[in-house]
Amino acid sequence: MSNLELPVVDLDAQRAKVATDLRVACERDGFFYVSNHGVSESLQTELEVRARAFFARPLEEKMAIAMDRGGRAWRGYFPVGGELTSGVPDSKEGIYFGTELALEDPRVQACLPLHGPNLFPAEGGFREAVLSYMRAMTELGHRLMAGIAESLGLEAREVSASLLRDPLTLFRIFNYPAEPAETPRWGVGEHTDYGLLTILKQSDESGLQVRTARGWIEAPPLPGTFLCNIGDMLECMTYGRYRSTPHRVKNTSARDRLSLPFFFDPSFDADVRPLVPRASLEETTRWDGRSVFDFRGTYGEYLLDKVSKVFPALATSQLRREGAP
Length: 325
Ligand SMILES: O=C(O)CCC(=O)C(=O)O
Ligand SMILES: [Fe+2]
Fold this sequence. Notes:
With 325 residues, the chain is α+β, with helices and mostly antiparallel strands. It contains nine helices and twelve strands. Residues 191, 193, 247 line the site of fe (ii) ion (FE2).
């Protein structure tokens, strides 16, 4: 494996250059860094400091906001081993956040899964930091998708109208405990992301690995940037021109590794379909043996199917639409 094989896209460059750089990056590995993204460094540091303090607390305290208290909004804390990204327990703990919706919101009243209020750590300031970060990242998500639309020769308006009327935004903070290199466990097993774009902040500890046509490479943190990758819905929307790239995590550093992925996804009710002609690329077998082109339906349907597999115990009890919010 070698370092820094992935490109950096400067978002302050001329619009046409940004679009070209995005196209090259998306066609090649589907993973790229972005610089000059405009998201406050001090806000990122604040979140990291607060998150490290939260994860250092005793388990009983963290379980005060456990996911099974979040109901079908799918929010809150899960302990190490609580998530099964690729069928086996991940060696990580984390907190799930999403768009903050009041119980009176019509979507919450309609018992829509994954919609509702967050469960924030009690410590003052956590809530405000998470919500400001999500606002900044949502803006960045729209900006990147406008560049990606241009990179495909599409109007940004067309992509917005089709997929981004009310983007589903999910934000997670993960802590991967330091583990010996020889451990057979993965922080996260090999998988692809489900939505459009994932925009990731990592702490100083490396651990993320990306499967490229040239083999597995590392995607270490690069100061002042975020790491972006393509999700299944962008692959579907581009008819395979841009592919969702498999990746996995193993923290082999001596310190706990924090990662803060922000998922910028289609609207829950978006009918996801290709917006460009079929790519000439041969369709290759994906890591999970499925093709995203087989899927037709709303993004919400796709996501719920995936989520029920990574949290099987919660899925049966909480993903039903019936009942009070
Ligand atoms: O922790 C990371 O660096 C990546 C996490 C990840 O792949 C995911 O949450 O989908
Ligand atoms: Fe991922």
